[in-house]
Design a protein that fits this description.
With 59 residues, this protein is mainly α. It contains two helices and no strands.
């Protein structure tokens, strides 16, 4: 009896999950974004410089 109850609850939870995923547009494919290219050294330098100037004005 416990095993039957567990089976029914598992089946119902699976159905709820299936309905929710369909509502969100899941079609069976997992999509991931491509890796972004590494930033150039000049960009990093500019960010550090800008951040250090911002911190100086606050103090």
């Amino acid at each position: 009896m416990v095993a039957g109850n567990l089976f029914i609850r598992t089946l119902e939870q699976g159905e709820r999950t299936f309905v929710a995923m369909n509502a969100k547009g899941y079609d069976g494919n997992i999509r991931v974004l491509e890796d972004l290219p590494r930033p150039k050294k000049a960009a990093i330098f500019g960010i550090v410089l800008f951040d250090s100037q911002k911190n100086r004005r606050i103090s």
